[in-house]
């Protein structure tokens, strides 16, 4: 089977430019009227401000919950200026049909922010303010996911990639423009948490032994390119997708990002999350069922316990009985230890 990768654009190029112009015009009007300008967007920094119905998303019934970035406050002045600068950058990128990464932006202003994560959050906030998926703003995250097995595609320049010929996997592009004309005969997809596990399975010829199959890793928490590919394999091919992660709170959280999405990307999860994903394991009870020796286990520490508490409070854990049971299992195990 083969298909032309559908354009990821949800909002047209001209509409995005109009939205940026509207924001800038609003700022100019405020200054001309003698009022201090501010930027606002739907708040997406707390779980109780979001809704959950198979995926995590913004709550459309709570438009009054907004984050306001004011130009007159010391605490938000720098962020206001940075958001305006990023809007200018996005406008030029779209006009010139060019792309850049969040890392590129960080290196353009090395003295402005100490950490990459600060720029990442601001770019996410700009995308939320414009109500446009970040990849359609021509700002990409550095790709890190790998794919192997029965899947072929071409990039924007027309180069052909056959993942079945790779022994170590092929990097998943950050944007769908470089993953076009996808074809596959796979019967299922296996997603593994870590690159080490992916490489071990590739080395043991998992894809050949289970042919036709696709093997994917996001190398920990997945980037958008990996999430977009999985979403396409589900929506276009309706392939069963299984996730194999560590039997610890962090593994469960990574699985949840694939299945339900993340809080920071609540406005994009409808394009990224794959609710039909099956959690294959490793389940905590598998430790005993498979007689895994204690020497192969790492004790839970205080941070693991804290992560359990955080996970149990999330909306998908309150609704998903299996996940709630597994998270609760960790508390029981901690008490026994």
UniProtKB/TrEMBL annotation:
It comes from Elysia marginata. GO terms for cellular component: nuclear chromosome. Residues 188-328 form the Topoisomerase 6 subunit A/Spo11 TOPRIM domain. CDD domains: TOPRIM_TopoIIB_SPO. It catalyses: ATP-dependent breakage, passage and rejoining of double-stranded DNA. It holds the Pfam family TOP6A-Spo11_Toprim. GO terms for molecular function: ATP binding; DNA binding; DNA topoisomerase type II (double strand cut, ATP-hydrolyzing) activity; metal ion binding. The keyword DNA-binding applies. Keywords: DNA-binding, Isomerase, Magnesium, Metal-binding, Nucleus, Topoisomerase. The keyword Transferase does not apply. This is DNA topoisomerase (ATP-hydrolyzing). Belongs to the TOP6A family. PROSITE patterns: TOPO_IIB. It comes from the Eukaryota.
